[in-house]
Amino acid sequence: MNAPVLSRRLFLASSTAVGGGLLLSFDIEGEAQAAGPATLSAYLKVSPDGKATIASKIPEVGQGMRTALPMIIAEELDVAWEDVIVEQALADTKVYGRQVAGGSMATTLEWDGMRRVGAAGRWMLIQAAAAKLNVPAAELTTEPGRVVHVASGRKLAYGDLAQAAAAIAPPDPKTLALKDPKAFRIIGKSHVQTDTDAIVTGKPLFGIDVRLPGMVYATFVKAPTYAAKVASADLAAAKAVKGVRDAFVVDGGTALDGLLPGVAVVADSWWAARRGRNALDVAWADHPTSTQSTASLAAKAAEFAKTGAQRAARADGDVAAALKGAAKVVSAAYDYPFIAHAPLEPQNCTARVKDGKVEIWAPTQNPEPGRALVAKTLNVPPENVTIHLVRCGGGFGRRLINDYMVEAAFIASKVDAPVQLIWTREDDIQHDFYRPGGWHNFTAGLDAKGDLVAWRDHFVSFGEGETFVRSGGMNSTQFPAGAVPNYLHEVSVMPLGIPTGPLRAPGNNAFGFVIQSFTDEVALAAKTDPVEFRRKLLGEPRLIGPEGQNDSFHTGRMRGVLDLVAEKSGWGRKLPKGRGLGVACHFSHLGYVAVVMEVSVAKGQVKVEKAWVAADVGRQIINPTGADHQVQGSILDAIGSTLHQKITFENGAAVESNFGDFPLLRMSQAPPIEVHYLLSDNRPTGLGEPVLPPAPAALCNAIFAATGKRIRSLPVGDQLA
Amino acid sequence: MAYTLTVNGSPHTVDTEPSTPLLWVLRDLLNLVGTKYGCGVAQCGACTVHLDGAPVRACVTPVSRVGSKAVTTIEGVAANPVGAKVQQAWKSLDVPQCGYCQAGQIMSATALLTATPKPTDSQIDEAMDGNLCRCATYPRIRKAIKSASGQAEA
């Protein structure tokens, strides 16, 4: 028998603060360690057979962090990837720091910290080997899975050192030496995603697959007009449906991202709950936002365009004077619709509430706000809420908001059994936190040489005063800000009673479209090739904005990807009638991306023939197979939404309800995509979002090249018919 | 009503309403959760299973219509050599992103390759257009189908 040994849990948390310092603390707990795995840190266990169990801290939504982050740890730990077992960390920011799948920030924020987690494990194993071999640690090195004493040729397997290593005080991560990137064995090489095998064989992985003993199923119906209360509900017919256990009214509140009013139906199977729901007779109370419609919002926006902006958010130089003196003035109004996220796994969550303790299995991108919301709504201390992170069947930003989590927890608190809440697809599309629509009224001035001398964007959005609705704001640093002497960014907002939220590259997914489309118009007005015009506008390589600030823009990095995509796509080549090339480049989420698309248009139908992408996200692509996925997925995501997607509102409620009227891109519409990375001497940054924003404009600029029709309003829909 | 279904080669008896979709019989009554709910109206293909080898959308297939037809789900598709080959191609090419639609994709691809061992691009489009992938892994799905069929990608 092995004696119990002390294991230390090393709590490494990378700070979200600029500078990304590591917080290091550890507690010591007496723990009987027999022949099981030895715990080296909150991220790392090593078992006697040498297998390393590595925790992935970030929720997995298909962005690949459950593979990429453990790869980084494994690299510095120096184990063979085949010997790595990945497990999902619990939601616990006290241990793991930021646990958010959002903002394309995991690579940016975790790159250094995860390397140090791995290096700390390696250091502890080396110390253990030094003690065992009675040699100075400095004489030791590692090869995958083993500590090596080069001078004597002796080697010790990690599995044999793990117990002793676990008893060693962890190092100060700042002092650790990291690998020379030239020596990387794992990072930079494609590794199949951690869960691929389980996915292709149909193993339970997702939120909707959670099964607990005695679990029941629930559906929750809310008012079509957001936050309207239940006026009356006849529950008898629903309760009479075979398999239905209960049906009850939930009073709910008024916060759109909290627990809303509705009726819950709980049953032995989800289908029985669904049938019970069909049998409900619910009348909804009138609600002040029930007069809102897409048409009423557009009318208000048109009024703003006519009467002028409420305020200026940024004013460089004197736009009015510059426009007066310009050789040429170009004006255009652009708009884009609300769109839904529609991840393929409908919102769902499983919860068990017992003796004041809440246990949750949630497909969430952002667990901590969910914990706070559940604790507040159920009136329990946050530490009584445990959240298991389960794989998400897509996120796209939808699961940054935890409305479904609080619904599941609340329903479970009223039922003496664990509850799995599953939304219908209609619930999902009609109760989203939509990418808000918006309007941009542009005017640009060109001098006699065709150089841009003035740029005005009157942005019409939603909010009150200087506060925007969630994801309805716009930064005043969007290029060409800082590159044109006279720049005016104006804003008007109107109130909104429709839930909004971040959707893949929030804000930028629309700004890329309007700015890069209008830039094309200005280039053509200047009688300059669109790539050449952008090169001129970017000018000398320089940073626009302060060093170290996330929205500071480097013109040289953008120039690099623009040149690369122009070269790879054969920009400037002659195309037959009905075909066109379009270019766009946009900076967001620290990534510089340029896209060219080639389209053909026949009988009013657009076909994207091919897309080329050049991306600069720093010096290192961690897992190329995952990176390519994000790039190609972003391009196709953009093609689908640009061509077809919109959510319209009538009577304060969404009209579209399923994939019939809210279509996703299909196989036959997906073009080949050529991906190029421009490795630059910058820190590695995220790739889940920055590729999307330039794509809609590249597509619409290509449509213009093919047809002469300028798309200023999305979706493209039947505008070419 | 009691129904006896042959699922992945084994008989299972369930007691449910005749109109209950096969999808929910599989998921809630037989605990075969590999088959996914995506839309409930045969628009997305996430629930694709085989009835006697033919792809159907389980979300709109009432249990009463299954009869004696053999039901194959993602959990049992490897018993079909074509299915096993498709799964292998999906793995080698690392097709999934979030993975939620992939069971349905694999079932549709397996049915395609069983009927048409060397499909053209347009045959692939036709067979796969009913299977949505929100992450848009379509380029790799196409590549994996080509690979499983022994055709090199152009």
Structural descriptors:
heterodimer, A: 721 residues, Aldehyde Oxidoreductase, domain 4, 3 domains, 7-stranded mixed β-sheet, 6-stranded mixed β-sheet, 17 helices, B: 154 residues, alpha+beta, DNA polymerase, domain 1
Structure, described:
The complex is a heterodimer of chains A (721) and B (154). In chain A, 28% of the residues lie in helices and 27% in strands. With 721 residues, chain A is of the alpha+beta class. Chain A has 3 domains: 5-200, Aldehyde Oxidoreductase, domain 4; 207-287 and 347-422, 2-Layer Sandwich (Aldehyde Oxidoreductase, domain 4), CATH 3.30.365.10; 308-339 and 434-707, Aldehyde oxidase/xanthine dehydrogenase, molybdopterin binding domain (Aldehyde Oxidoreductase, domain 4), CATH 3.30.365.10. In chain A, β3 (38-41) and β4 form a beta hairpin. In chain A, α13 (508-525) packs parallel to α17 and α14 (530-538) packs antiparallel against α15. Chain A is globular. Helix content of chain B is 34%, strand content 15%. Chain B folds into 2 domains: 2-72, Roll (Ubiquitin-like (UB roll)); 77-148, DNA polymerase, domain 1 (Orthogonal Bundle). A 5-stranded mixed β-sheet of chain B has the order 2-1-5-3-4, sandwiched between helices. The longest helix of chain B is centred in the last third of the chain and has 14 residues, at 102-115. By secondary structure, chain B is of the alpha+beta class. The interface between A and B is large, with 60 and 58 residues.
Topology:
The complex is a heterodimer of chains A (721) and B (154).
Chain A: E1 5-14, E2 22-31, E3 38-41, E4 44-46, E5 52-56, H1 65-77, E6 84-88, H2 93-96, H3 106-133, E7 140-143, E8 146-149, E9 154-157, H4 158-166, H5 196-200, E10 216-222, E11 230-234, H6 236-240, E12 244-250, E13 262-267, H7 270-278, E14 281-284, H8 294-307, E15 311-316, H9 319-324, E16 328-336, E17 348-354, E18 357-362, H10 367-378, E19 385-389, H11 403-413, E20 419-422, H12 425-430, E21 438-446, E22 452-464, E23 467-468, E24 486-494, H13 508-525, H14 530-538, E25 543-544, E26 553-554, H15 555-569, E27 579-588, E28 591-602, E29 605-616, H16 624-644, E30 649-650, E31 653-654, E32 673-677, H17 694-707
Parallel strand pairs in A: 5-6, 10-20, 18-19, 22-24, 29-32
Antiparallel strand pairs in A: 1-2, 3-4, 4-5, 7-8, 8-9, 10-13, 11-14, 12-13, 15-24, 16-21, 17-18, 17-20, 21-22, 22-23, 25-26, 27-28, 28-29, 30-31
Helix pairs in contact in A: 1-3, 3-4, 10-11, 13-17, 14-15, 16-17
Chain B: E1 2-7, E2 10-15, H1 22-29, E3 48-51, E4 54-57, E5 70-72, H2 81-92, H3 102-115, H4 121-128, H5 138-148
Parallel strand pairs in B: 1-5
Antiparallel strand pairs in B: 1-2, 3-4, 3-5
Domain 2Fe-2S ferredoxin-type (chain B): 1-77
GO molecular function (chain B): 2 iron, 2 sulfur cluster binding; metal ion binding; oxidoreductase activity
InterPro entries (chain B): 2Fe-2S-bd, 2Fe-2S-bd_dom_sf, 2Fe-2S_ferredoxin-like_sf, 2Fe-2S_ferredoxin-type, 2Fe2S_fd_BS, Beta-grasp_dom_sf, Diverse_Oxidoreductases
